[in-house]
Write a structure and sequence with these properties.
Blueprint: E1 3-8, E2 23-24, E3 27-28, H1 29-39, E4 45-49, H2 53-61, H3 81-94, E5 101-104, H4 114-126, E6 131-137, E7 148-151, E8 154-157, E9 175-185, H5 186-191, E10 200-204, H6 216-227
Parallel strand pairs: 1-4, 1-5, 6-10
Antiparallel strand pairs: 2-3, 5-9, 6-9, 7-8
C-alpha cells in the first residue's frame, strides 16, 4: 500500500501567532512532526501543505518536501482538513502519481514517534481498515455513560440510558481523538468525502506524553514536557 504522509501547516494562527514555526525547545513546532515522519519506514512520501511562504521556507530548510503552495481559499480557520487532503491528492494525480491512503499528521500534536506511525500503518493495512485514528482513553469522570445533558430543565444521561452505571469499574472504555494520526484510504476520502469509513480502527496512545496545542496554556504544557526530558522522538 502506497501511503502519503501529509503535514498541514497554515499561517494566521490567532491564539498563538506563528504557531507552526514558533520555537519549542529550540526547534520549530512542525519539526517535531517531520522528525517522526522521516524516520517512519512505512510512509512512501512526506510533504508539507501550506499557503504561508515563511512556513514553506522553514520546512524546506529542514529538508521537508513542499511540492506546491496551498491556495489561500484552503487556508482559513473553517477550512475542513479533508479539503486540504483532497487538494494534495489531486495535485499528485495530475502528475500521474497516486496513493492508496493518506496519513494526516497535525504539527499541533507534536509528540508522536516513528514507531507509533509504523504501528498505526501496520494495523491499518493488516486489518483492511477504511480509516484509523490515534486516540486516548477518556477519564472515568468524563465517560459518556456518566455525562448528562439538560432536557426540559432536567438532567438526562447523554447516552440515552435510563439508569446510570454505578461503579467506575463497570464503565466501558471510551476514547477521544488525540489529533496525532488520521489514516484514511484514498477511495474513502474522494468518494465518501470523509476521513472516516465504515471500518474505522484506532490506536491507543494513553500513557505517552501528549498535548494538542491550541492555547498559550497548551504551549506552556508542551514546553514543560520538552524541558523535563519526558519526550524524545525515538521513544514510545
Amino acid at each position: 500500500m502506497k501511503i502519503l504522509g501529509l503535514i498541514p501547516a497554515r499561517g494566521g494562527s490567532k491564539g498563538i501567532p506563528g504557531k507552526n514555526i514558533k520555537l519549542l525547545g529550540g526547534k520549530p513546532l512542525l519539526q517535531y512532526t517531520w522528525e517522526a515522519a522521516k524516520r517512519a519506514s512505512l510512509l512512501d512520501k512526506v510533504i508539507l501543505s501550506s499557503e504561508d511562504q515563511e512556513i514553506i521556507e522553514v520546512a524546506k530548510n529542514l529538508g521537508l518536501e513542499v511540492p506546491f503552495t496551498r491556495p489561500e481559499e484552503l487556508a482559513h480557520d473553517e477550512t475542513p482538513s479533508i479539503e486540504v487532503i483532497k487538494h494534495a491528492l489531486n495535485f499528485f494525480k495530475e502528475k500521474g502519481e497516486n496513493f492508496d491512503a493518506v496519513c494526516l499528521m497535525q504539527p499541533t500534536t507534536p509528540f508522536r514517534s516513528p514507531g507509533l506511525l509504523d504501528a498505526c500503518i501496520k494495523k491499518f493495512v493488516e486489518n483492511n481498515l477504511d480509516s484509523l485514528i490515534s486516540v486516548r482513553e477518556v477519564p472515568a469522570e468524563f465517560n459518556p455513560h456518566w455525562v448528562f445533558e439538560e432536557k426540559e430543565g432536567l438532567l438526562k444521561l447523554a447516552t440515552g440510558e435510563e439508569s446510570i452505571i454505578p461503579r467506575r469499574q463497570e464503565l466501558p472504555k471510551a476514547y477521544f481523538r488525540d489529533g496525532a494520526i488520521y489514516l484514511t484510504k484514498t477511495e474513502v476520502l474522494l468518494e465518501q468525502n470523509s476521513l472516516y469509513g465504515k471500518r474505522t480502527g484506532f490506536y491507543d496512545t494513553t500513557g505517552t506524553p501528549y498535548v494538542n496545542i491550541d492555547t498559550p496554556e497548551d504551549w506552556e504544557k508542551a514546553m514543560k514536557i520538552v524541558e523535563s526530558g519526558e519526550w524524545k522522538v525515538e521513544s514510545y
